[in-house]
Design goal:
The chain has 241 residues and is α/β, with parallel strands linked by helices. It is built from eight helices and seven strands.
């Protein structure tokens, strides 16, 4: 199951996992994009289901796991790729921008993780949860990105906390965070609130492509059961910080 699968890293991860032979559940708000991606993957022989879901709605998140059980028997790998950033300074931004980031990047991720882990444990599956985090979870990238960074610092804490929780329960389920630097996606335009920000952000040097991060995700989930890759930092060679 891949959340945020309508674009960017989520769509690339879905393609990469399907290419490895996985049945894939595509989850995002934009159903038209999911249907187009599902048709593309089915044409390549993949088994695919798609669910329109808003990560801010708990019922939607619970429903996507129910769809995975119905179509594929359950969730073996969850890729939490849904997320967003807004330029939202602490001294001046409207509360709704903060709430949106917290609800999608942290709370929605946590609910999806809980539902997937409960499904894995019911079936006795040594599954894997992958959080698509950010280099912003390791440092504050800019003065107007503190709340976005706070959500990604939270993901980092949740990743380690979940690892400890699973080990305390002697669970074979693994958890990993992938923290990319600059990746050419819709992120820059959404963060800045203007489309030209994409060229400004990604045109300065060769940045990562979404498929580069997807390749890291495939590598992570195909490691042998005794190997838990905990946090991968991946950035363009030319990126300074």
């Amino acid at each position: 199951m891949v959340t945020g699968a309508s674009s960017g890293i989520g769509a690339a991860a879905a393609r990469a996992l399907a290419a490895e032979g996985a049945g894939v559940v595509l989850v995002a708000r934009r159903m038209d994009r999911l249907e187009a991606l599902a048709a593309e993957l089915r044409a390549r022989g993949a088994a695919v289901a798609a669910a329109a879901a808003d990560m801010r709605r708990e019922a939607d998140v619970i429903g996507m796991v129910a769809l995975a059980r119905e179509r594929f028997g359950g969730v073996d790998v969850l890729v939490n790729a849904a997320g967003l950033g807004r330029r939202a300074p602490l001294a001046s931004a409207p509360t709704e921008l903060w709430r949106e980031m917290l609800e999608v990047n942290v709370l929605g991720l946590a609910i999806a993780t809980r539902e997937a882990i409960q499904d894995m444990e019911r079936r006795g599956v040594a599954g894997h949860v992958v959080h698509v985090s950010s280099m912003a979870g390791h440092r504050i990238p800019s003065p107007d990105a503190a709340m976005y960074a706070a959500t990604k610092f939270a993901v980092r804490a949740l990743t380690e906390g979940l690892r400890q929780e699973l080990r305390a329960r002697q669970s074979p389920i693994r958890v990993t965070a992938v923290s990319p630097g600059h990746v050419e996606t819709e992120f820059a335009a959404i963060f800045a609130g203007r489309p030209e920000a994409a060229a400004e952000t990604y045109g300065r040097f060769k940045v990562l492509e979404a498929r580069d991060v997807a390749a890291a995700i495939v590598w992570i989930v195909t490691q042998p059961p005794h190997v838990e890759v905990h946090d991968v930092l991946v950035r363009p060679t030319a990126q300074r910080n």
